[in-house]
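Structure first, sequence second, as always.
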C-alpha cells in the first residue's frame, strides 16, 4: 500500500497534540512514553500486526488525533457511563466480542441524534435501507436508529451476518463502514483478504484504527492523561419500560403527565419519537424509574381528559380564513397552530377542524 504523507495541517495537529497532551500529563513535551503502543494488541481476538512499521504508524496517528481532542474524549468517557452497560449486555447476550462496543464511539460518540451527510442516523449510524433490513421502524413518526436498545440489537445482528460473510471481525467492521458489496469487490479485485493490506476508501482505511485507538484510550484513560473518577461519569439510564396502545396519534404531553414528568424527559428518554405525538399503535417506551407503576391507569385518565378538552376546543375553518387570521382571532401564533394540528403549510379548507388550546389574549399576559 502506498503511504500518504501527512500534509502540513495534519503535521501541525500531531505536533500540537504531542505538546499539549504530554506536557500536561508528564510535565515535559519530550516524554512520549504514554504514546508507546505495547503489544500484543488485538481487536475482537484478532491480532493487530504492530510489527509492521506502517501499521504501527497508522495506529499511532489515530491515537494521537483522538487523544489530543481532549473535550471529545472526556465526553466519550462520561457518556460511556450512561450507555455502555446496556451495549455490553446486548453484545454478551448475542455472544459477540466485547470490543465491538468501541465501534459506537467512532460512529456517533454516543449521541442519539448524530447524523451524516449520507443519511446515516443514530447511535450506530444506520442508513434507512440497512435499518429496514434489520427490522427497525423508520418513518416520520418513529426512528428506531435513535433508540439505544433497538439500534444496538440491529447492529449486533448486522455484525454477526458480516462475520459469517467474511470470517473476520476486522473485515466485518470494515464492511460495516463501507458496505459488504464494496468490500467484497475490493477483495476480489486486489486478491487480498487481509484488512491491513487492502487499499480501501480512505475513511475505511482509517476506520478500524480509529476503533482500536478508542479502545486503547477508554481501556486506560489515565495513561493518556484523562483522570476521571466513577463519580465523574454520567450515571446509567434509570427507567421503567411501559407498553401503551394509542387508538390515535397521542400528544407526548399526555404521556408525560401519565409518567409524572414533563415533555422533555419523555423525548430525551425516547429519542426515537419524532415530533409532538406518539403515532397510533402499540409502543414500548421508557419512563422515569418508579413511574411505571399504575402507568396504564393514569394514561387512560389523562388521555380521556385530553380527548374531552380537545372536543371543546375545536374550531371549524370558515371560508376566507387563513392561518394568520385564525391565530390573531385567538391571540396565539400561527406556529402554535401548526404544532398543535401538525400542519405542514398554510393551506386550509373550509370545514377543516383545528384544535385551539385556550390561552389568555397576549395583551392580558
Amino acid at each position: 500500500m502506498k503511504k500518504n504523507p501527512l500534509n502540513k495541517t495534519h503535521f501541525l495537529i500531531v505536533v500540537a497534540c504531542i505538546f499539549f497532551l504530554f506536557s500536561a500529563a508528564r510535565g515535559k513535551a519530550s516524554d512520549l512514553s504514554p504514546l508507546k503502543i505495547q503489544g500484543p494488541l488485538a481487536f475482537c481476538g484478532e491480532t493487530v500486526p504492530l510489527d509492521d512499521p506502517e501499521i504501527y504508524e497508522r495506529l499511532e496517528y489515530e491515537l494521537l488525533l483522538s487523544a489530543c481532542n481532549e473535550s471529545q474524549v472526556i465526553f466519550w468517557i462520561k457518556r460511556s457511563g450512561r450507555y455502555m452497560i446496556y451495549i455490553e449486555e446486548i453484545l454478551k447476550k448475542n455472544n459477540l466480542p466485547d470490543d465491538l462496543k468501541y465501534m459506537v464511539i467512532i460512529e456517533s460518540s454516543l449521541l442519539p441524534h448524530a447524523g451524516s451527510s449520507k443519511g446515516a442516523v443514530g447511535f450506530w449510524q444506520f442508513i434507512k435501507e440497512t435499518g429496514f433490513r434489520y427490522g427497525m421502524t423508520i418513518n416520520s413518526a418513529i426512528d428506531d436508529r435513535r433508540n439505544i436498545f433497538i439500534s444496538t440489537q440491529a447492529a449486533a445482528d448486522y455484525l454477526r451476518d458480516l462475520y459469517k460473510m467474511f470470517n473476520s471481525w476486522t473485515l466485518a467492521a470494515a464492511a460495516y463502514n463501507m458496505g459488504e458489496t464494496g468490500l467484497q469487490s475490493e477483495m476480489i479485485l486486489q486478491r487480498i483478504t487481509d484488512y491491513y493490506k487492502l487499499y480501501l476508501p480512505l475513511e475505511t482505511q482509517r476506520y478500524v484504527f480509529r476503533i482500536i485507538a478508542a479502545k486503547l484510550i477508554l481501556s486506560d484513560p489515565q495513561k493518556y492523561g484523562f483522570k476521571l473518577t466513577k463519580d465523574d461519569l454520567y450515571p446509567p439510564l434509570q427507567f421503567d419500560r411501559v407498553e401503551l396502545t394509542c387508538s390515535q396519534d397521542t400528544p407526548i404531553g399526555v404521556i408525560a403527565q401519565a409518567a409524572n414528568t414533563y415533555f422533555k424527559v419523555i423525548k430525551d428518554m425516547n429519542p426515537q419519537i419524532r415530533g409532538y405525538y406518539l403515532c397510533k399503535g402499540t409502543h414500548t417506551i421508557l419512563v422515569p424509574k418508579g413511574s411505571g407503576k399504575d402507568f396504564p391507569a393514569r394514561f387512560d385518565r389523562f388521555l380521556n381528559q385530553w380527548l374531552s378538552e380537545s372536543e371543546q376546543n375545536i374550531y371549524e375553518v370558515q371560508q376566507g380564513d387563513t392561518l394568520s387570521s385564525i391565530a390573531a382571532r385567538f391571540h396565539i401564533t400561527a406556529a402554535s397552530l401548526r404544532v398543535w394540528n401538525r400542519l405542514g403549510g398554510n393551506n386550509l379548507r373550509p370545514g377543516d377542524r383545528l384544535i385551539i388550546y385556550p390561552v389568555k389574549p397576549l395583551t392580558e399576559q
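Margin note: The chain has three domains: 34-228, 239-312, 315-364.
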